[in-house]
Amino acid sequence: MNLRKITLLVLTSLMISSVAVSQKIKEKTVKKHLYTLASDEMQGRRAGTEGIEKAAQYIEGEFKRIGLKTYGDLDSYRQTFTFKNRRSGEDITSSNIIGVLEGKSRKDEMVIVSAHYDHLGMKKEGEGDLIFNGANDDASGVAAVLTLAEYFKKKGKNERTIVFIAFTAEEMGLIGSTHFGKGIDASKFVAGINLEMMGKEPATGPKTAWLTGFDRSDFGKIIQKNLEGTGYKLYPDPYPQFNLFFRSDNASLARLGVPSHTFSTTQIDKDPDYHKVTDEAETLDIVVITETIKAVAKGTESIINGKDTPTRVVIEEKKK
Ligand SMILES: [Zn+2]
User: pLDDT tens digit string along 241-289?
Assistant: First the structure.
C-alpha cells in the first residue's frame, strides 16, 4: 500500500468514527430528555418534593431501558439518604440515581459521568410563573448524562467502568455528591465528567465549551488532544472570579483527589435566566447541547477506553 492509500484509509476511518458519534447522538433524544425534565409537571425538582420524585422515576426508567446495572451493593438505581437542610432545618430524604456500565477489561477503574437533577422548586407565593424549571440548570446536564449512557451502552467498547449519576440536592450545597463521595474508595475513580448548564452558546462561539479547574489536572489537555480535527474546541473556564470549580458536584470528588471537572457552555456572567423562573427549555439551543454531548463523547474516549489517565487533583483547603 502506498502512502497516499494509507493516508486515505486513515482519513476515511477518522471520518467514519466522527460520523458514528454524530449519528448516534441525536437532537431528538436530547430534546425529549430536556423537555421532560424541565416540564412544569416536575415543579422545579426541589429535593424532597413530589416534583423531583417524578424526575427520579424518569431517570430510573431511562437507565433501565438503556440497560445499565446498579451500583455496588445497591439493589436499585437509588442511593437514598436523609440530611438536614442547613437553611430551613428540615430533614429531607432524597436519592442520587446511579447506573453502571461495566468496563470490558478494567472493571475496577471507574469514570463518573454526572449532572444534578434537583433544582430550586417553586416560589411560595406570587403571581404568574412560580416554577423554577431549571432547564439549563441542570436538566441540560441530565439530558446529556442519559444521552451519553445510551451512546456508550450501544457502542459497547468501554474498557473502564462508567458510573452515570444524577445527583440530588446540589442546589442545597452539593449534598448528593458529598454523600456519594463518603462511600467510595477514591483511588478507583480515574476521572469525573460533570455536566452543567450546557444549553447556551459561550462567548467563544459555536462548537466550543469551557471546563472548570482546567489547570488542576491534565484532564482538559487530554480532551483538547482528542478533539483535535473535530472543529470543536474546549477552553479553560473564563470566569475564575465565580469560583465555579467549587460550586458544582465535581468538587465533592475533586476534594478526594479525583480529576473531576465540569463542562459548561453558558455565559454565566450575563445569563438573564440563571436561578430565575425563566430558565425554561425554550430558551435553550438544542444544537449547542447536542454538539457539546458529541464533543464530550469524543473528548473523553481515550480516558474511557483506558489509554489516558488524567493526573490527580491536589487541593489545599484554607483552614477555617
Ligand atoms: Zn447547576
Answer: 999 999 999 999 999 999 999 999 999 999 999 999 999 999 999 999 9
- All three cell numbers of 320, joined, read 477555617
Distance CA 131, CA 192 (A): 30
β-strand 233-236 against 91-101: which pairing, if any? unpaired
Q: What is the dihedral of CA 12, 111, 104, 218, to 10 degrees?
A: 50
Length in residues, the chain:
320
The pLDDT of residue 87 is: 87
CB neighbour burial string for 145-157, b if at least 16 within 10 angstroms, e if fewer: bbbbbbbbbebee
- 143-179 pLDDT per residue, tens: 999 999 999 999 999 999 999 999 999 999 999 999 9
Helix (H) or strand (E) run with residue 95 in it: strand 91-101
104 Cα to the center of ligand 1, angstroms: 32
Q: How far is the CA of 237 from the centre of ligand 1 (A)?
A: 15
CB 161 within 8 A of CB 65: no
70 CA from centroid of ligand 1 (Å): 25
